[in-house]
Fold this sequence. Notes:
A: mainly alpha; B: FAD/NAD(P)-binding domain; Enolase-like, domain 1; seven-stranded mixed beta sheet; flavoprotein (chains B, C); Pyr_nuc-diS_OxRdtase (chains B, C)
Amino acid sequence: RSGSGAPGSSTAGTGTLTRAPAPGPAARADGRVLAVPAARQLARELGVELTQVQGSGPNGRIRVQDVMSYGQQGQGGQTGPAQQTAPAAAIPQPPVIPQ
Amino acid sequence: MTKSFDFDVLVIGAGPGGYHAAIRAAQLGLKVACAEREAVGGVCLNVGCIPTKALLHAGEQIAAARHAADFGLTFGQQSLDIAKLNGWKDGIVKKLTGGVGALFKANKVTHLIGQASFVDDHTVKVGDQTYSAASIIIATGSEPAKLPGLEVDQSSIVDSTGALVMPDPVPARMLCVGGGVIGFEFAHVYNNMGAKVKIIEFLPNVIPGADADAVKEFAKIMTKQGIEIAVQTKANRAEKKADGIHVELENVKTGEKTVEVFDRVLVAVGRRPRTDGLNAQAAGVTVTERGFIPADTRQRSNVPHIYVVGDVASNPMLAHKAMKEGLVAAEVIAGKPAEQDAVAIPGVVYTSPELAWVGLTEAEAKEKGYEIKTGVFPLSASGRAMTLQATDGFVKMVVEKDTDLLLGVHIVGPHASDLLGEAGLALEMAATASDIALTMHAHPTLGESVLEAAEAVHKQAIHIMNR
Amino acid sequence: MTKSFDFDVLVIGAGPGGYHAAIRAAQLGLKVACAEREAVGGVCLNVGCIPTKALLHAGEQIAAARHAADFGLTFGQQSLDIAKLNGWKDGIVKKLTGGVGALFKANKVTHLIGQASFVDDHTVKVGDQTYSAASIIIATGSEPAKLPGLEVDQSSIVDSTGALVMPDPVPARMLCVGGGVIGFEFAHVYNNMGAKVKIIEFLPNVIPGADADAVKEFAKIMTKQGIEIAVQTKANRAEKKADGIHVELENVKTGEKTVEVFDRVLVAVGRRPRTDGLNAQAAGVTVTERGFIPADTRQRSNVPHIYVVGDVASNPMLAHKAMKEGLVAAEVIAGKPAEQDAVAIPGVVYTSPELAWVGLTEAEAKEKGYEIKTGVFPLSASGRAMTLQATDGFVKMVVEKDTDLLLGVHIVGPHASDLLGEAGLALEMAATASDIALTMHAHPTLGESVLEAAEAVHKQAIHIMNR
Lengths: 99, 467, 467
Ligand SMILES: Cc1cc2nc3c(=O)[nH]c(=O)nc-3n(C[C@H](O)[C@H](O)[C@H](O)COP(=O)(O)OP(=O)(O)OC[C@H]3O[C@@H](n4cnc5c(N)ncnc54)[C@H](O)[C@@H]3O)c2cc1C
Ligand SMILES: Cc1cc2nc3c(=O)[nH]c(=O)nc-3n(C[C@H](O)[C@H](O)[C@H](O)COP(=O)(O)OP(=O)(O)OC[C@H]3O[C@@H](n4cnc5c(N)ncnc54)[C@H](O)[C@@H]3O)c2cc1C
């Protein structure tokens, strides 16, 4: 239950629901990645590149659960901040300040 | 569906449940009739949601004018023209019910005037005429429950409908029997208009169903505003005398009885489903002992082509639930995969401040076996609330401990009902407290208090110290 | 970090960007100092967001008292004690800035008083003292832009700071130069307090950045309220004479010049980043020609351990953007994976009705190549708006055609800023119009108009006819 669903993604509903085609990679033509805030946060934590994650929500929206399963499967079962993928080019790595 | 029916859908009752069903069915191309024996709009528009909110607004403006002295704005003699007040309120009702009538016309919904009763499961008599329909939607609503010993005469002893007509002069002493939403809304109106108001509630807590902390804060504020609240108290009988209505009150814990005198008594002890004259048994439709006609999540009664929506179907008796169910019934009839699958049904007391909530209370969450954490942000720390002269109240969030999943939001504060929009969407989207905390909220807004409550769940609120 | 630094983090500026950064860094266990040369709270608390909202509320209460006549509530002679008004407003500011001071203490943030300037990239001089820090956050904010020909004297010709002190008597004729958010907020205040107000704007539209339809509706309402709006107009010069301030106005399209006379002139033509006395070059920090210190999405300047947040970093110059960036900088310094990745930054004009928006305007969406559909729901069809005597305005939704993805929400109406909570969360959650339409919204609330706008996108709104 630790993800983010949506009424649109559940069984049925009122309204004209425009159904997305099968969920695919979440990167869109304009570069926006459809992911809920907590999923974006988790992706950064795990060093997961969001454009690689298959979103299970409408329009391929990425939920927390999707990032977790990608972290587990997509990266050979390894998760955790230690297994960072290469950081996005524009963003330098944060310095870690030991307390 | 064969051509032998007069209508694809016949809706009984034009309250929010019924008129939503009728309009949506028509939007989906069905041939629709809607029978109504009183006024379109039902309880909600005529004698419920809308006129109460009009009176509440008027009362709040009186209070606001008083508080304006804090920033240097004062007024000479204030006067309230009660006839004009009642007329203004009635005007809003008329505009809205007229609007529903116009929407019926524009959507080609046939409006049948009169009492509807079943002849058989496809036939309904409305007035003298008989109509057949492939599908029928029952949306007959509810009516005030009665209280033995306090006979409603709609002048000195009133139910919610009678209380909507403000008497001139405003009664000096008012008793509200029933500390639910309706009791408090009227108490607030009459209190702001100058009455000395007492609310009594049989149960140990007012506003049953709301979060205990929120109710405590709410009751504290209402008391501060001058409303007297007595819980575990019931009214046994009322007697009209020259100096007022003598009401025997009983403390249900101690059994102690006292007599108090009032000028007006409101009986607001709940509502019961309304099926009188419907002749549901002729259609084979099940009516429970308490008068409800149960429906499944697609709003179907035990007879598959007869649907039930709104107050007559189930609690909570709220207009937005009726509306949603009306839409679902219409869509299911039109062959759409609709379902009443709401995660939560919001509740609001439209006083000032408002009490508004959606989702699980702390107690409900624990009962359901959730391990939870909570976050509270007091409005006394909100800059926006200060500028609005309204710092009483708080936002409380109930969240599942391990997953951060949002379970419920409970707000006492100004515009709390507006803030429910975010809370309700968050619940439906299965959002986490982090999703809310990471979302930028405009400054300075009351919505920042929702953000801060989410941060407080993580002990990271900025404008308070996190224990 | 070696032990040789005085602080883990030194923040320069205690505005919303700076104080959020300082408190969050302290919450995360860092040793923090925050330098401020004026008052904690920055522009926002002292001379920006908060005092404007206080005055706006006061002005709205004056208007509300007038409108109360509609429902029969009238008052005798009204009087406004201007000294008390200014004092009340100042009291709120004091309470909030005092609160920030208390939060600094409670979170053990060292508050350094004085002008801060860089000595080198790890060393900052504050007043006479020099401090070293492992990381430094620049949060020096912004200040009003100047307009040649209209010299601000803070009495007859004022900037936003001067305009916050309401003169006694209220000026009879007021000119607001600049039709942006600040210009309109002050125009609204002064108009409600009795001034005859004119706004001039150089561009063809007021409130640049907002949706064109929303701006049109907004301007229409402001005009109806008595504010005169002249676009494509500039003020060339002002001369103080015995009968008032003579201002030469020029129609920038026709070149036509006229002179009009006012009692007070507000110059609100934008703001510019503030780096005076900071000596940023000593730290090797890049300052652009326009005075900004650019930052990446982790709020880093070109010098990796020096961060920049708020108005000094970039447009839009808004407090909630500064706050978010402050939190991000603090968390990045603490080794957390934070990022300024907001889908949209909300904007609000806190007039009555408010204009509030978040996400793409219709024009922006088209520019970006989206195929879109829109839905509009007028507040004149909202029962709640009627009871609030506030039916001017609408909710407009911009949605991607094929995917139903919500792109932007634009609201003109009462409590519009409260309704942004839902809209903002929806955008961040990548919600569709259906997600909103399927979510139960309490009745009767203003939030139902958001629901109805989403339904209108699908041509299924209930309370209007869908073209
Ligand atoms: C004072 C008060 C304030 C309230 N405030 C709120 C609020 O703020 N928010 C909220 O959500 N809810 C509120 N409610 C509750 C709300 O009014 C109801 O939940 C809502 O009206 C239920 O809608 P409905 O369509 O089920 O039934 P109703 O509104 O009760 O409508 C049923 C209609 O059916 C008609 N009818 C019944 N039987 C027949 C028949 N046999 N033939 C023909 N016509 C028939 C009736 O005349 C009626 O018009 C309030 C109620 C009251 C009393
Ligand atoms: C009239 C008005 C109304 C506004 N209303 C709103 C609104 O409703 N909503 C909204 O979002 N935004 C509003 N704003 C904008 C908002 O005030 C700014 O976006 C916000 O204050 C920016 O925060 P900041 O932390 O970047 O900088 P600031 O608030 O400008 O704070 C910077 C601080 O740094 C200090 N400082 C600068 N240089 C030095 C130095 N060298 N040494 C020591 N201290 C230094 C300054 O004294 C100041 O206190 C309004 C602005 C104005 C003028």
